[in-house]
Amino acid sequence: MVEWVQGLMDSLGYVGILLLMVLENLFPPIPSELIMPSAGFAAARGDLNLIVVILMGTLGSVVGTLPLYYIGRAFGEDRLVEWADKHGKWLTLSGKDIKKADDWFDRHGTKAVLFGRMVPGIRSLLSLPAGMSEMPLPKFLLYSAIGSGLWASALAGAGYLLGDNYEQVEQYVGPASKVILAVLAVAAVMWFVRRRREQAQPG
C-alpha cells in the first residue's frame, strides 16, 4: 500500500493526491493517514509545495464525500421511514426512530460534519446521514471543507516534520480508528439490547 500510494504521487503529483483522497472517502482501506503524511514528506524533500498539498488533499476529500451524500439525498428520510416501518422490526428499528435520528442530525449536523471529518473510521460515513437529512449542499460542503482542511493540514504537517519516518503517523492513527469503530459498535449493540428489553416489557 505504501509503495502504491507513493508511486501514484510520484507519477501524478498533485493530481495523484486529489485522486487518492477522493478514493479514500469511497474505499476506506485507502487511509488518508498514509496519503497525506506521504505527500507532506514529498513536500519536505522539495518535490511538492506543502500548501498546494493541503489544498489538493482538502479538495479531494470534499469531492469524495459527494457520492454518499447524493445517495443519502436520493434515498431520503421518507423512504427510510417507510422501510423501517415495514421491515425494521428484526432490527428493533421503527420509522419513529429514524425521525428522531433525523431530528438529531438537523440540530447537530453541522458539528457532526465539522468534527466528524477529523475522526478516522467515521469521517467518510457522515455524508450519508447528511444527505438523508437534506442538509443544504453549500452548508455541507463548507463544514466538510473546514474539517477536511484541518485534518489534511495536521497529517501533511506531521509528514513534513517527520520526514523519512512519516509512516509513523499511520501507525498511531490507524489503531485509534479501530478503537473508535469498536466503541461505536459496542454503543450500537447496547442500544439494540436496550430496545429489545423495552419491547419485551409488557404494557
Automatic annotation (TrEMBL):
Pfam families xrefs: VTT_dom
Keywords assigned by UniProt, alphabetized: Cell membrane, Membrane, Transmembrane, Transmembrane helix
Transmembrane intervals: 12-30, 50-71, 140-163, 175-193
Domain VTT, chain residue ranges per copy: 30-160
Protein name per UniProt: DedA family protein
Record localization: Cell membrane
Membrane-topology descriptor: Multi-pass membrane protein
Keyword match Transmembrane: yes
Presence of keyword Transcription regulation: no
Organism encoding this protein: Deinococcus rufus
